Amino acid sequence: MGLFNFSRKKKDLPQKPGFIERRMLPRWKIVSSAKVKLQNSEDYIACEVRDLNLRGFCLGVAEEISGNEVRMELYFNEKYFFDIEASVTWHKEADGKHIYGLKFLRVRDSDREKIYQMMKDIFSDYLGKL
After folding, report:
1. Cα separations (Å) of 117 from 27, 41, 98, 112?
2. What's the pLDDT score for residue 2?
3. What is the CATH number of domain 25-126?
4. Which whole number is the average pLDDT over 115-125?
5. How many CB atoms lie within 10 A of CB 72?
């Protein structure tokens, strides 16, 4: 009898839920162009910071970043630049770019203040949004 059950209507599979934010401190979705200079590199590389909070950020860059821990200079403008040590928590490729989720390993208190001040000055529209 089980052989002829193929014509029965199959039950609808449950829909997968959309993106669920699991971070204790959600990131601000800023999508801003910036420049990054990796450790042992001479030049800055154009990049895009897609989201940011005081614990980490999402970075889109044309070149692949090697290693799980990275030291870099992140440059938004003359006033807002940061010396960062971060670990790569995830990586994917999309539209010819390498997209990285980076978690800060060490952030000086002064840089934390600068990040928050930058959000207030440049990205104040995003502070209340996730």
Report:
1. 15, 28, 28, 9
2. 56
3. 2.40.10.220
4. 85
5. 21
